[in-house]
Amino acid sequence: MTSQRPDPGELPVVAVLGASGFVGSAVTAALARLPVRLRAVARRPSQVPGGEPGRTDVRTADLTRAGAVAEAVAGADAVIHLVTHSGGWRAAENDPSSRAVNVGVMENLCEVLRRDREESPAPLIVYAGAASQIGLPPERPIDGSEPDHPGTAYDHHKLAAERLLKEATAAGAVRGASLRLPTVFGHVAAPGVADRGVVAFMIRRALAGEPLTLWHDGTVKRDLVHVDDVAQAFVAALDHPGPLAGGHWLLGAGRGDPLGDVCRTVSELVAARLGKPPVPVVSVAPPESAPATDFRSVTIDSSSFRSVTGWRPRIPLRVALERTVAALAEDHAT
Predict the structure, then answer these.
(1) pLDDT tens digit sequence for 129-171
(2) Global pTM exceeds 0.90
(3) pLDDT tens for each residue of 275-321
(4) How many CA atoms lie within 13 A of 14 on its CB side?
C-alpha cells in the first residue's frame, strides 16, 4: 500500500472495522505485514498475528454508536468496512438489530466523514459487499453489470450500505469502493474465529461422521475463494483508490464449483485424514424457508477488478480445501 499523506515519511493509517471477524482477521493479518499503522476495531478484542508494537492499535467499540465510529476512524487514511451482524443473513430477516449493524454503521461512517473531513484527498473506504446483492443470478457468469434486485433482507441491507457509500463518494466526502464478495471459506489463525459458511459446515459434518446433505442434485455451483485470497483483494484495493472509487467490484475465482463435487472432495479429504471410510453425500428435501438463490448457480467474472488491481485468487481449490480440512480437523480433535 502507498501512503496518501503529504509527508512521505509518515506511514498511512488503515482502520479495519469488524477486525475480529472471519474476513476481518485475515485482512488484519495481511495488513500487519505491510508498512502501515494498523488500527483493528471490533466489538471484541482482535488478534493480530505478527502485528508490530507501536504500529498496531487494537480497540474495542460498539460501532453502532456514531461517537465510537468517529473515534475509530479519526485521522485514518483508509478504512476497511467489514462490519456485519453476527447472525448473518438469517438474522436480518427477523432481528431489528441486524439493520443497525449492517446499514447503521455505514450511515454513521459516512456522516462522520462528511462532518469531520479536513484533509485532502478524502479518505478511502473499502466496503465488503456481497455478490448476492443482485438477487437471482442469470444463467451466465455475473460481472457487476447486472441490475440489483436483492431477494433477502440481508442483501437489501448490503445494497443500502453500498448506496450510502456511493452517495458519499459522489459528494466528495470519501473515496468509496465496494468489493462484492463470493462464497468465502477457509480458516484463520485468530483464536475463537470460525468460518460459518457452507464449506466449513460440510467439513465439520464429515469430521463428525455425518452425511453431507444437499438440497439439490449437487450440480448447483458456487464461486469459492479462500479467505486469504479475499484478504489480498482488500490490500490490492488500497493501492488503487482512483480507478475503484465510486464503483462496486466483484471478486471471484471464475470457476463455478459444483457443490456436489466440492462435498465429495471434502468427504475424501476428511476420510484420508481420519483413516475412515468417506461419509456419503446425499440429496434431501429442502426446508420451506430456503431462499430461491440456494438453487441457482453462481459463477463470477471478476475481470474488471483484476484489470485494475492485478489481483487474482492464487490458492487452488483443492489446496484450499486441504488446508481448511487440516485446520478444522485439529480444532475438532481438541
Answers:
(1) 999 999 999 999 999 999 999 999 999 999 999 999 999 999 9
(2) yes
(3) 999 999 999 998 888 888 889 999 999 999 999 999 999 999 999 99
(4) 31
Res 116: pLDDT: 74
Determine phi and psi for 141, rounding to 5 degrees. Answer: -60, 140
Q: Identify the CA nearest to 88 among candidates 23, 26, 136, 147.
A: 23
Phi, psi torsion values for 233, nearest 5 degrees: -65, -40
Coil, strand or helix at 39: strand
Cell numbers 467474472: residue: 301
Which sign, positive or negative, has the C-alpha torsion 108, 114, 115, 121?
Answer: positive
Query: What are the start-end ranges of the H helices in the chain?
Result: 22-31, 66-73, 88-92, 96-102, 104-116, 153-170, 198-207, 227-238, 241-244, 259-274, 303-309, 317-333
How many whole angstroms separate alpha carbon 184 and alpha carbon 24? 12
Distance CA 300, CA 138 (A): 11
State the Cα–Cα distance between residues 189 and 67, nearest whole angstrom: 31
Residues in the chain, total: 334
Show Cβ contacts of residue 96 under 8 Å, excluding neighbours closer than 6 positions. Answer: none
Residue pair 77/5 in contact (Cβ under 8 Å)? The answer is yes
- Cβ 63 vs Cβ 105: under 8 Å: yes
Q: Is the pLDDT of residue 17 over 60?
A: yes
CA pair distance 28, 153, nearest whole angstrom: 28
Q: Which helix (H) or strand (E) holds 126?
A: strand 124-130
Is the model more confident about 55 or about 190?
Answer: 55
Q: How far apart are CA 240 and CA 309, in angstroms?
A: 7
Is the separation of the CB atoms in 45 and 60 below 8 Å?
A: yes
